[in-house]
Amino acid sequence: MTQTERRIYLIKELLAEQPGYRGMEIPEDAAEQRRLLRSLMNVRPPRRLGNALLAAQDEYLREELVQRGVTELSDLTPTAEGLYLWQGDITTLRCDAIVNAANSGMTGCYVPCHRCIDNCIHTYAGMQLRQECAAIMEAQGREEETGRAKITRAYNLPCQYVLHTVGPIISGPLTARDEALLASCYRSCLELAAENGLESVAFCCISTGEFHFPNQEAAEIAVRTVRDFLKTPSSIKKVIFNVFKDTDKHIYRQLLGADRAAEAGA
Predict the structure, then answer these.
(1) Which H, E and C letters describe 31-98, residue by residue?
(2) How does strand 161-166 pair with strand 149-153?
(3) Nearest one of 219, 181, 214, 215 to 203, comparing CA atoms
(4) Taking the C-alpha atoms of 116, 119, 122 and 126 in order, what is their torsion angle to the nearest 10 degrees?
């Protein structure tokens, strides 16, 4: 099948799963088809995937990744020993593990085409990621605590694993407890990665988006916690701070001394 044929096949199969969606017309425009497919994947509850559906999805997502392009960790330049700052799409980064800023349900964002990192990671990893997360949560028997972390396979992402952590939600003045919980997110991810013998971890800006943690304070906690962790011998050798917004890039450049390093190398 061509990529277009795969996309239409997947849309038809996912529409057929939901009685309320049967009869919905598939748009002719490729961009609208992609949006519809992503929406259907986002709202699909965690349940078994048939072999044909799974194979078509994996082939489709692998080709989409080729078109979007993969960023190799080896192509990035460290700002300091073992520390990297990279502005880009974390779902295209090839490293051992990327970090997902999850919600307490831990099975992804169900809002169609939402721009949060949770939605993006589940979209491009594939629907089996939600299945694995749901199995973990069913075994746990309760929602995930803030500041803890879980590890899953990455499926169709170029990384090997995804570390899922729930950051604190800020609805008023920032408190010492909020700061401690955010530090715990970073520490828990690093500890879990080390337990699994991983060497490289890419962090998104946990809690700074929908959870409203102030960007400056969040970055300070992130850098401080990672630097403290790296002082202790472990398998972790490389940590990437992944940013999306220019504001966060500027903050991290200052904290990591990237501007000073660039001037020294000039």
Answers:
(1) HHHHHHHHHHHHHCCCCCCCHHHHHHHHHHHHHHHHHHCCEEHHHCCCCECCEEEEECCHHHEECCEE
(2) antiparallel
(3) 219
(4) -130
Pairing verdict, β 161-166 and 200-203: unpaired
Q: How far apart are CA 183 and CA 147, in angstroms?
A: 8
Residues in the chain: 266
Contact criterion met (CB below 8 Å) for 105 and 140: no
Q: Looking at residue 193, what DSSP letter applies?
A: H
The low-confidence residues of the chain, meaning pLDDT below 50, are 259, 261-266
The 10s digit of each residue's pLDDT in 158-184 is 999 999 999 999 988 999 999 999 999
Q: What sign results for the dihedral spanned by CA atoms 210, 211, 214, 220? A: negative
CA dihedral 52, 54, 59, 62 (to 10 degrees): 180
Confidence at residue 22, expressed as pLDDT on a 0 to 100 scale: 76
Please tell me the predicted confidence (pLDDT) of residue 257: 86
Q: How many CB atoms lie within 10 A of CB 181?
A: 21
pLDDT of residue 262: 45
- The predicted pLDDT at position 258 comes to 61
In this structure, what is the dihedral angle of CA atoms 95, 225, 129, 141, given to the nearest 10 degrees? 150
Question: Do 109 and 22 contact (CB within 8 A), yes or no?
Answer: no
CA distance linking residue 259 with residue 266, whole number of Å:
11
Mean pLDDT taken over the chain: 94
